[in-house]
Design brief:
Layout (H helix, E strand, L loop, with lengths): L1 E4 L5 H11 L23 H15 L5 E5 H7 L6 H4 L1 H14 L16 E2 L5 H8 L6 H8 L1 H8 L2 E3 L7 E3 L12 H4 L4 E4 L5
Antiparallel strand pairs: 1-6, 2-3, 4-5
Helix pairs in contact: 1-2, 1-8, 7-8
């Protein structure tokens, strides 16, 4: 039997999310999963900015990018915050834009996170382990080990499974503890089974 997934989530949106999570990644490791191409264009800043928005709103609550910095992400998605590159006035405007739209965390003193800080998730690993069975992985590490095509395929591979604690399963990573956080964008998918030529 060959399993296929009915997918509705716009491919461009998923590519954008994968691109933001994986800007420094150019390779992938797929295992036995047939991967779809994320088709990332690192020169399409509007698309990358949209992906950053979705990543920060849907993924970052649980998944850190602890080996990336906010200001580096800002540079990569087209609004540089370095005054040596764009001048003081533009850098200040871009820092304000970054802080107001993509930084939702605070430092240990409760002050807004500095744009030069590492992108650490606010979820305590201990609590995440209780809630999901294991702490959510740092996506800068997943991106480097698995690649953008794997993450793109993974995000499109959730389907309803009432036997699982979160009510969903994933064809790319079976029995994963992660809920389908993009269901509002994609809708709920069902797994369909089809017989191929071999029966």
């Amino acid at each position: 039997m060959k399993n296929t997934l009915v997918n509705k989530l716009p491919t461009k949106l998923l590519a954008i999310i994968a691109a933001v999570a994986l800007l420094p990644v150019l390779s992938y490791a797929s295992g036995n999963v047939k991967l779809e191409s994320a088709n990332i264009d690192l020169t399409d800043h509007k698309s990358l900015q949209n992906g950053a928005k979705y990543y920060m709103n849907y993924c970052f609550g649980c998944h850190a990018l602890a080996f990336s910095r906010y200001n580096r992400m800002a540079n990569d998605i087209g609004f540089p915050v370095d005054p040596d590159i764009v001048g003081d006035e533009m850098a200040a405007a871009n820092v304000k834009l970054l802080s107001e739209n993509l930084i939702f965390t605070t430092n240990d003193e409760g002050k807004p996170t500095n744009p030069g800080a590492l992108m650490k998730s606010a979820i305590p690993a201990k609590d995440a382990g209780k809630w999901f069975g294991a702490p959510p992985p740092d996506l800068s590490l997943v991106g480097r080990s698995r690649g953008s095509d794997w993450i793109y395929t993974y995000l499109k591979s959730f389907y309803l499974d009432p036997k699982r604690p979160t009510g969903v399963n994933n064809t790319t990573f079976p029995n994963v503890g992660m809920p389908h956080v993009l269901w509002e964008l994609q809708g709920w998918q069902t797994l369909e089974s089809h017989k191929d030529e071999s029966g």
